[in-house]
Amino acid sequence: MKKLLVSLAAAVGLAAGSAQAAYPERPITMIVPFAAGGPTDVVARIVGEHMSKTLGQQIVVENVAGAGGTTGIARGAAAAPDGYTIMMGHMGTHGAAPALYPNLKYDPTKDFAPVGLAAGTPILIVTRKDFPAKDLKEFIAYMKANSEKVNEAHAGVGSVSFTTCTLLNSLLGAKPSRVAYRGTGPAINDLVGGQVDYACDQIVNLVPQIQAGTIRALSIATPERSPSLPNVPTTKEGGLPEYEVSAWNAVFAPKGTSPEIVAKLNDALVKALDDENTRKRLLELGGVIPDKAGRSPQALQKLVESEVARWTPVLKAAGATAN
């Protein structure tokens, strides 16, 4: 009897090992928690394309927008931990959300198996092309005098655009009308159309519009100018050195996903980030490629924990909430 039990246990172990060794055997869904066309969607599609080649199965992007990205991430967190549903999260969904959503259905630090960081994305302050302020100094003065007449576009409470503009508004003492969209793509479309006045957004989504002159870039919130937009001054140059912030996008799997599957996904992500064409596409959009040390699941876990610790006091002090 004991021998039979041992044999059965061994058979089950072999079957599980074989299943993991064969992974993936069918397409993988990558949930992007915003509408198509936004920065998180763009990064997901660029890295997902190369990851598909490495894994030998298609990564299919599913856009699940709503509640500042938390709707899609909550769905991903509740998915089976079998490697066939993964998520492209970011600073908003995994850093700011706990301070903004008291009833958040997931814990960014505990309910995921981190896979790896995909890209860093500097933040830009942008306006409609005919906004009265021509640079950051004029914008600061204009907002201090007229902020209640101004409309700000963002991708929903908890999104990167909402969070980073919350910090900006707090620093300026500004109280604009805040217009929510189901993703940054639709928000920027309305900024191009002149229906809203300004936004804080990730550079990945803005370079083409800035270069085309359909929107105006006032400043980039990084210590140095971006090679993608060398004519856009930093916030320090523009007179607001305390506004220095960058976002990020990263791949997560549901909690309980096996270490072997996480390792395969991480390997595919790392190979995508080492691919010359993938790097070129991300860099042309202004993205920052994480270094080798920053690509591991362990590094991503530490990043999430540090971001939750950073943004919780900032957002609570600003009185920001989803309710």
UniProtKB/TrEMBL annotation:
Keywords: Signal. Belongs to the UPF0065 (bug) family. Residues 1-21 form the signal peptide. InterPro entries: BUG, Bug_dom1. CDD domains: PBP2_BugD_Asp. The lineage of its organism: Bacteria, Pseudomonadati, Pseudomonadota, Alphaproteobacteria, Hyphomicrobiales. It comes from Chelatococcus albus. This is Tripartite tricarboxylate transporter substrate binding protein BugD. It comes from the Bacteria.
